[in-house]
Amino acid sequence: MENMFEDAEPAFAYKSDNELKKAFWMFRAMGFNQLVGLGTSAILNAIKWKLPVNPILKNTLYNQFVGGETLEKIGRVADKLAAYQVDVILDYGAEAKTGEANFDLTKREFIKAIGYASSRVNVPFVSLKVTALASFGLLEKLNPFFRMNAAGFSMDTTQLTESESREWLNMTDRIFQICEVAMNKQVGVLIDAEESWIQNTIDYITMRAMQMYNQKRVTVFNTIQLYRHDRLAFLKASHAAAGSLGFRLGVKLVRGAYMEKEAARAADRNESSPIQPDKSATDRDYNAALAYCLDHLNEISVIVATHNEFSSLYTTAKLREQHLPANNGKVFFSQLYGMSDNITFGLAKEGYSTSKYLPYGPVSDVIPYLLRRAQENSSVAGQTGREVELLRREMKRRGFTTF
Length: 403
Known about the structure:
- It is a single chain.
- By secondary structure, the chain is α/β, with parallel strands linked by helices.
- An eight-stranded parallel beta barrel has the order 1-2-5-6-7-8-9-10, surrounded by eight helices. A two-stranded antiparallel sheet has the order 3-4.
- The chain is 55% helix and 13% strand.
- The protein has two domains: 1-66 and 361-403, no CATH class; 92-117 and 130-358, TIM Barrel (Alpha-Beta Barrel), CATH 3.20.20.
């Protein structure tokens, strides 16, 4: 079992020779931090100047990390993954939208995605970002007014203007509509974590949605970023509040995707950073959060969303200790599409409930997501090197020359 992530052949069996080569050279390029930095700046400038960069992105980052432009087009990817017992988490690549009309359009797209998911056997979840459905400024304004303890949670909205109050009601209504459709169609909704200065508001909305829709089964999952030093305590407080109010807690555990942005903002504002002092502290809290969830599976369902091999093996070992089957309906694994295939396919081969987080949408909509993936791979120590080595091993097995 300890070697389930070492075999490159099953990890890349779903990739054609051409796809394998493209992935190898993509990750090699990501290994050069300076190159990624220059490329990111060039892409952002090209977008600002309205240069035609979409075709370049589509043939590189987009094809590696995104399933397709529409639900219909990602069906091919979902079918390919299903053949290897790998599920799909649908992620409509919309974030930081503006205007009520755009928010309503995005809501309809999420509901469409839920309908699509309910029609397929290997799409148990959809993911959404609250910033695709609500004003960032409104989320930020409310952020200081969220309160939670073991007895429950609350949000003070009395400081909102009349128009902001209407926005707030519209926004919560959109999210609750999405969650209600998902509950009725038995599809899970994963609400993404975002920047710390809007996360309290997102946590409040998500807790309300869980209270409403996690009565009989877990429909709604909150995302907890353990690169924040306060999130382990938040997980425990969320569990206590769920127990007090009588609903099941759903959590997706991640390390986090906004570290550099968070640290830069805190420094600019001369504020204490919400980020852990180092990676070892993040790893410690992530594994402690895993242990806490696995010790309370009667009340918590957990998605282990990680590219970390130790955390994945730690979870499988804990499940064996508790004599729980691999596919137990309460513990799910997930990795991003285009990354850590050795973990995904290794877990699936052993019977664990495992998925790929599969974004879709027009190139222009998913550019922020693509740039985060490039930066994440270049900045996480060992991540890119591990991908390159596994790809190199499989290319060699297939008889290709690598450098």
